Predict the structure.
Amino acid sequence: MGRNPTGAEYWQGRIDEVRIWDHVRNATDIANNWNRALTGNESGLIAYFPLDEGVGTSTVDASANTADGTLSGCTWTSG
């Protein structure tokens, strides 16, 4: 995530958090929930990475699936 599959181009921006669902979210779902933290046990939530660690090369999956992730080629920022 954040990199072209060829490995030649990287995302030139910031990612605040990552949410992965088992279904397509409609515009209303997104609009109603985009700016709030999840509890981690929402129906259909596969993975939820709040990216609140601030340091290191790993991130905790706050969903019930606990599929923690490894970070590569990124820089932590605050704000």
Notes: The CA atoms of residues 2 and 12 lie 8 Å apart. The longest helix spans residues 27-33.
